Write a sequence for this structure.
């Protein structure tokens, strides 16, 4: 179980780093804020922050462990805040509530991360750390769960609208499919978030208990595959989506 | 929520060109946009142009407007002068760019 979880975590980390780095590089040429925000999300939170916080407990020496926890939590908070801001800026650019909502989520994430860091500094006892960090982790999962729900709703809502636009020639099949994948990313993330929250309520550690680690890693792995298809779609996949659309259009005609 | 510049221009022209009041004109255009999977807040002049050609005539006829072709031509003329600079980038434009297509 532990080896499988580690393998999933390694694949998730690698995929997030590749996708995130590519998006950040793309933002330098396009000067686009959305790709920068998503790139930072995947590099900071998924690519470095989360694996660092999971592996911190296994590092030799308390100083190294504490350093990894601090860096990991800061990167998770920063990356997840970028993710919330991406939803606000891309899906609700004209809504007065969207950026404040993302800001509120970022504050909850920061407060939760702070509690986790303080809990780690307060005692070397792992069980006591888990107990003291529980409220902070729960707050972070709540904010993140809200962000994933937002992603799922916006992705699937836009997918439904894009399908109507396709009929009028106002949308491309690949971009339409991208919204479906984005919505599914939100759904998958909500599932692993729910498993993690339940485990937390049951008193299990999110970084050492195999069930939440496996759920988070597998969820992250599926998300990583979806992210590759969204942000770096292989040519064969784009062709398949376009061909499927063409076949359906002919069938409708 | 206010509509996009293109939507507001089309509504104003539809109100001028027909016997519809402000709310009837907005409602008629909104129904056509919903059929097209578009939103009033973010629809562009180009997208609205397609909706005017493909979906609006049917809506106008259901309102008893017989000269739908003339009304649609006037709407196209109104949209041609719309200045969309400063409008927020739409989600589909962002997703189109993010995936490299």
């Amino acid at each position: 179980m532990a080896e499988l979880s580690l393998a999933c975590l390694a694949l998730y980390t690698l995929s997030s780093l590749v996708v995130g780095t590519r998006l950040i590089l793309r933002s330098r040429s396009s000067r686009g804020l959305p790709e920068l925000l998503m790139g930072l999300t995947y590099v900071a939170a998924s690519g470095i922050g989360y694996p660092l916080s999971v592996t911190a407990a296994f590092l030799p020496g308390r100083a190294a462990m504490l350093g990894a926890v601090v860096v990991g939590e800061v990167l998770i908070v920063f990356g997840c805040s970028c993710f919330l801001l991406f939803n606000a800026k891309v899906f609700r650019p004209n809504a007065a509530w969207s950026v404040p909502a993302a800001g509120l989520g970022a504050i909850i994430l920061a407060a939760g991360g702070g509690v986790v860091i303080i809990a780690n500094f307060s005692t070397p006892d792992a069980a006591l750390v888990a107990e003291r960090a529980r409220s902070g982790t729960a707050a972070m999962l709540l904010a993140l769960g809200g962000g994933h729900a937002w992603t799922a709703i916006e992705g699937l809502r836009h997918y439904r609208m894009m399908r109507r636009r396709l009929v009028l020639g106002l949308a491309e099949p690949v971009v339409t499919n991208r919204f479906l994948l984005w919505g599914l990313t939100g759904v998958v993330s909500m599932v692993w978030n729910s498993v993690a929250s339940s485990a937390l309520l049951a008193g299990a550690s999110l970084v050492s208990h195999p069930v939440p680690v496996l759920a988070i890693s597998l969820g992250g792995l599926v998300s990583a595959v979806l992210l590759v298809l969204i942000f770096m779609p292989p040519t064969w996949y784009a062709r398949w989506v376009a061909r499927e659309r063409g076949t359906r259009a002919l069938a409708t005609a | 929520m206010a509509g996009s510049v293109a939507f507001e221009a089309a509504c104003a022209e539809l109100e001028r060109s027909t016997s519809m009041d402000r709310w009837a004109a907005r409602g008629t255009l909104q129904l056509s946009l919903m059929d097209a999977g578009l939103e009033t807040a973010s629809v562009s002049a180009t997208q609205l142009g397609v909706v005017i050609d493909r979906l609006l005539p049917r809506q106008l006829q259901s309102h008893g407007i017989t000269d739908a072709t003339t009304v649609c031509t006037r709407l196209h003329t109104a949209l041609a002068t719309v200045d969309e600079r400063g409008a927020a980038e739409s989600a589909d434009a962002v997703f189109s760019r993010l995936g490299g297509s």
About this structure: Chain B touches chain A at residues 1-2, 35-39, 41-42, 47, 50-51, 54-55, 88-89, 91-92, 94-101 (CB under 8 Å). Chain B is about 65% helix and 0% strand. The radius of gyration of chain B is 14 Å. Residues 22-36 of chain B form the longest helix (15 residues).
